[in-house]
Specification:
The structure is a single chain. The chain is an alpha/beta fold and about 240 residues long. It has two domains: about 130 residues, Rossmann fold (3-Layer(aba) Sandwich), CATH 3.40.50; about 100 residues, Winged helix-like DNA-binding domain superfamily/Winged helix DNA-binding domain (Arc Repressor Mutant, subunit A, Orthogonal Bundle). It has eight helices and twelve strands. The strands form three sheets. Strands 2-1-3-4-5 form a five-stranded parallel beta sheet, with helices on both faces. Strands 6-7-8-9 form a four-stranded antiparallel beta sheet, covered by helices on one side. Strands 10-12-11 form a three-stranded antiparallel beta sheet. The longest helix is centred in the last third of the chain and has 14 residues. It starts with 13 loop residues before the first strand and ends with a strand.
């Protein structure tokens, strides 16, 4: 097994491929298996939910269009009990599908046709990226918002909020240096890793989802501020 495919616990990375097109599914499974992943596969959205809840995979490769329920609903449901990385696959190039997919907690997306090598490389990069890019310290407070980098917990007015791994990583980077303005490109480097190939909209959608969970109005946010023409920084709350 390659180092890139090794989770932090030292066990084999569990991957689930949810794709109803058998030729595509078989190729993805073969590539992931070759790289040392413990791979399961399924072609139906409803069955996928049961498998994810039972096996708790580390990463889910999820097609958008599926029988049973579509990938959007699969992602929405799995986010209620799993923080697995999710890479959404779509045959549609329209922006709305990508944005909707990310808004329910997908970490990344790829549009068909795509390179299987690139897909595997992206998954490997996600699995080996550090969870805390800046040394952890004491709890960070921004008004009623508390961010604990050690426990990876976020509370607002004393209520614990649920964030995906990627959402927390973005919040962690921003809150570690609250007066620093991060460009989208810098956030991609910090969270996804240097050299990651991604559309800057990936950051925008995750920030939008973070704001929604914080109750931050996009027009007048308190916690995650937009610095026009530059990027994002933390607000005082």
């Amino acid at each position: 097994m390659t180092d890139a495919a090794a989770p932090r616990s030292g066990a084999r990375v569990r991957a689930l491929v949810v794709e109803d097109e058998a030729p595509i599914r078989r190729v993805i499974v073969a590539y992931l298996t070759k790289e040392g992943f413990d791979v399961s596969e399924v072609d139906n959205g409803l069955i996928a939910i049961d498998i994810i809840e039972r096996d708790l995979p580390d990463v889910v490769v999820l097609d958008l269009m599926l029988p049973g329920i579509d990938g959007i609903e699969v992602c929405r449901q799995l986010r209620t009990f799993s923080d697995a990385y999710v890479v959404m696959l779509t045959a549609r190039a329209e922006e709305v599908d990508t944005l909707i997919g990310l808004s329910v907690g997908a970490d990344d997306y790829m549009t068909k046709p795509f390179s299987n090598r690139e897909l595997v490389a992206r998954i490997q990069a996600m699995m080996r990226r550090p969870r805390v890019s800046i040394p952890a310290g004491s709890t960070r407070e921004f008004g009623d918002l508390r961010i604990d980098p050690d426990s990876r917990e976020v509370t607002l007015d004393g209520v614990c909020l649920e964030f995906t791994r990627t959402e927390f990583d973005i919040l962690d980077v921003l809150s570690a240096q609250p007066r620093h303005v991060y460009s989208r490109e810098r956030l991609i480097d910090e969270v996804w890793g240097s050299g990651w190939i991604a559309d800057a909209r990936l950051v925008d959608v995750h920030v939008s989802h973070i704001r929604a969970k914080l109750g931050d109005a996009s027009s007048d946010p308190k916690y995650v501020l937009t610095v026009r023409g530059v990027g994002f920084r933390m607000g005082t709350g």
